[in-house]
């Protein structure tokens, strides 16, 4: 696996996408006129990405030698979220001491992954140090990492470790609907550059409050309104309501309703199945 490389690509603008999945980052890069070599171990995600025109290597990121891909211009990474997600068992929280220690040791030049992996409750927890390992080995000009919000603490640590290696870095949580995406989805981001100061983007759209969807906060009055599912799809705003059938251990016997006139909710493994109903929920009922 360590012999896999990307010497055939233009080194001047080579971008590597770790844990690339079906190609979310790559779709955005394409709109900007760039492409990336994605690496992922899931065969079906790789097949989906290839069908969409994205290049993939089906491999275990942790088993590869980053230097086989040198040099690169940019590095993107979205390591698996299951260990840290609120929708999962949360074993990543218990593994945090090992992940943090491993990150410090990698930054100091010592690869201690094997010993920390043996002590982790969830083997996926330690995959979050892979983006740091690749960044330190390859020193790309710019970096962009993404994960679920509980990983912000780790991204903030990475920002400090990368700063000691010459990078300007910034970490924080962004919410998708604040940037015109018709979905409420929060994610922790880390961006870094060797070419000067960086900052996470300022929101362009208003936040969505499921209890008061029409509320406009004073500090958001000059921003665009959030975008609904209907607007994003070009459908009628009162066409249908989506209700998931997950009861939340009885806390929500009917599930969670959200009409097309609102942004979509984040879909995760706890969402269960869905019911599509004509008409829309009354204002203020969604997510009450």
Q: What is the CATH homology-level superfamily of the largest domain?
A: Vaccinia Virus protein VP39
Strand count, sense and barrel status of the largest sheet are: 7 strands, mixed
Strand order of the largest sheet: 3-2-1-4-5-7-6
Number of domains: 2
The CATH topology of the largest domain corresponds to Rossmann fold
Percent of residues in helices: 10-25%
Global Rg: 21 Å
- How many helices does DSSP assign? 7
Report low-confidence residues grouped into runs of 5 or more.
1-9, 280-288
Give the terminus-to-terminus CA distance.
50 Å
Question: What share of residues are in beta strands?
Answer: 15-25%
* Rounded mean pLDDT score: 85
From the 3D coordinates, which CATH architecture of the largest domain would you assign? 3-Layer(aba) Sandwich
Order of helices and strands: EHEHEEHHHEHEEHEEE
Structural class: alpha/beta
The overall strand count is 10
CATH class descriptor name of the largest domain: Alpha Beta
- In terms of quaternary structure, the protein is single chain
Shape: globular
């Amino acid at each position: 696996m360590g012999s896999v490389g990307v010497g055939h690509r233009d080194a001047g603008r080579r971008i590597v996408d770790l844990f690339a999945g079906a190609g979310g980052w790559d779709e955005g890069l394409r709109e900007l006129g760039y492409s990336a070599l994605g690496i992922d171990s899931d065969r079906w995600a790789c097949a989906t990405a290839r069908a969409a025109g994205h290049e993939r290597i089906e491999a275990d990121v942790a088993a590869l030698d980053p230097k086989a891909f040198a040099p690169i211009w940019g590095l993107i990474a979205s390591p698996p979220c299951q260990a840290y997600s609120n929708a999962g068992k949360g074993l990543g929280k218990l593994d945090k001491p090992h992940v943090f220690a491993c990150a410090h040791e990698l930054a100091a030049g010592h690869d201690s992954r094997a010993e920390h992996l043996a002590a982790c409750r969830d083997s996926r927890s330690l995959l979050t140090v892979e983006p740091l390992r690749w960044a330190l080995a390859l020193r790309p000009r710019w970096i962009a990492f993404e994960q679920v919000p509980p990983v912000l603490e780790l991204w903030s640590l990475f920002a400090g470790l990368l700063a000691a290696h010459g990078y300007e870095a910034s970490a924080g949580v962004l919410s998708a609907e604040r940037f015109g995406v018709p979905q409420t989805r929060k994610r922790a981001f880390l961006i870094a550059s060797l070419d000067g100061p960086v900052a996470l983007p300022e929101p362009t759209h208003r936040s969505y409050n499921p209890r008061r969807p029409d509320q406009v906060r004073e500090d958001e009055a000059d921003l665009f309104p959030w975008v609904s599912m209907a607007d994003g799809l070009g459908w009628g705003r009162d066409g249908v309501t989506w209700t998931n059938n997950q009861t939340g251990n009885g806390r929500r016997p009917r599930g969670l309703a959200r009409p097309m006139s609102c942004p979509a909710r984040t879909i995760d493994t706890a969402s269960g199945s869905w019911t599509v109903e004509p008409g829309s929920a009354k204002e203020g009922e969604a997510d009450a």
